[in-house]
Structure prediction request, 644 residues.
Amino acid sequence: MAAEVHLQNVSKVYNKTTVVIPGIDLKLPKNELTVFVGPSGCGKSSLLKLIAGLEEVSGGEIFIDGKNVTHEPPSKRGIAMVFQSYALYPHMSVYENMAFALKISKTSPAEIDEKVRNVAQTLKLTKYLDRKPRQLSGGQRQRVAIGRALVRNPEVFLLDEPLSNLDAALRVDMRIEIAKIREHLNATMVYVTHDQVEAMTLADNIVVLRKGHIEQMGPPLEIYSKPLNKFVAGFLGSPSMNFIGFTVGDIIDNNCTLSGPGVVASAKFKIQPGSLKAGEHAFIGIRPEHIDVQKTLDGAELEFKTYAIEHLGDHSLLYGHVGESSCVLKVDPYTTYSVGETLGLKVQKQHYHVFDKDEKNVVDFARS
Amino acid sequence: MKKSLISRIASLIAVIGVSVFSLFPFYWAIVSSLKSPSDLFKVEYWPTHLEWSNYFSIFQEQPFGKNIINSIIVAGSTVILCLFVAVLAAYSLSRVEFKGRSFLLLTILAVSMFPQVAVLSGMFELIRAFGLYNHWGGLTLSYMIFTLPFTIWLLTTFMRQLPRELEQAAMMDGASPWIILTKVFLPLMGPSLVTTGLLAFIAAWNEFLFALTFTLSSDARTVPVAIGLISGASSFESPWGRIMAASVIVTVPLVILVLIFQKNIVSGLTAGAVKE
Prediction:
């Protein structure tokens, strides 16, 4: 029953002047979970509301399962939605909450009962069917909200930051639970979040948005390892990627060297032909876990000055500077480091990125 | 924080002072209603002997029972009609985007700024034209003038505080605006409906000027007018005892109503003042 969602040049403008989404073309594959991710104000929630039909598009068209639904009301689109605040009906019991949509669509009471009880069982809510939402915990309310959407057997299932109101431990549980529900569910899912961990763990496809533009779209690991620009590179991953500013030195055979404060002896970085010029300012991007740390500067490429250390048990984080750029390192917790110490760094050869002055990733991905 | 003895005594005195000031007129009305006409002008703070004749005579010398029923019908129908219109208006004013919405809200408020006397003659012509003169329907209709503005404003403010996502969830579930209003919003608005309904009831129950102007026969009068027109058996007899007795009779139902709904009123009046 899953359906493909197709947005064609969809735009949204508020009050004739505030452009939230300038025009997006997007195909969400059937039966896959797509995550919209981006900082607040990037238009991800607006995009979801446009798909849901809760807001009218300013331009463009929306197709669900090949049908043009641009001007259909939400209930005629075969979609269900889970809201950030759950939006349960406070005066109705869990059962009534889940049965509400079916009652409106004039489903027979026997069928309503069967569907509600089935969904309640999947979500382990059978015990709570007679309770009111205020008598439930946050996690249970979230499950009711999901259940209310599931009973309608939607073709497209929209989730708007469903876990952001839960505390950290519960969030992990619910994340796994949503992943489990997904296996049973035959629906195209769209999931909006600003949490990159949720995006990485749940998604088949991630759409990274900024200011209403799609910055990159693809499977999580591809986006993680091959970000197209500095924004995407910095958004996914925690702690986020280090960007070290430098001046481009020689370029020989599309291998560039770099110079600048903090550079001890430059390695060669493979870049796309013609992308950088000698003397230009650019950034090298390295994730904290992709840097080898040594106690001396002998044979090191970069010089790192430590100014803070965080011990997290399974690893430690060193905060410091390379030249004028701040930099975080993920290191073994059992080696002793001290604040103020100068360390030598080596960049792992398969994991670096190079960003030009327009923030575009110009590394040659066949670098290894 | 422990208060000193002096400040506690001072606040006690203040409380007693305010209570006496606000309750004394009502107490005096009760005491006066229990006096015989000849005792009326003797100053007694405590009734020495109870004289119930005032309470019987108001029902005998005039159709006071009929007047009470009129008042109940007028105030009751005002509340029902007013809440019905106000709920519908509040829904569109708080939830539907349309041009000139805030202008409309201000206009509604402006209506309540006119003094009653200013609209009296125009209203009189309207009532006559509708054929509602000397009929309770005319009063119900004219009372809308002052009850609707504040009920619409109160309910609009309250409805605005209901979360937007709740409405969107209902829309996703396929609910029409009518179902959203009746099945989702109204059940959540109980306290505010009671509060606004009660305020409208009190306003309609106590109204005097329209009731005096738009009724003619004593059978069609409402209670405030009937009380105002109570006269003595002769011009030398002052009817204060009976006026007070009638006043006590019509005030008691209001006091009882307010006490019954006390909890709702408080939660309705302060609803949304602080985030829950």
User: Anything to note?
Assistant: Residues 272-276 of chain B have pLDDT under 50 and may be disordered. Chain B touches chain A at residues 163, 165-166, 168-175, 179, 183-184, 187-188 (CB under 8 Å).
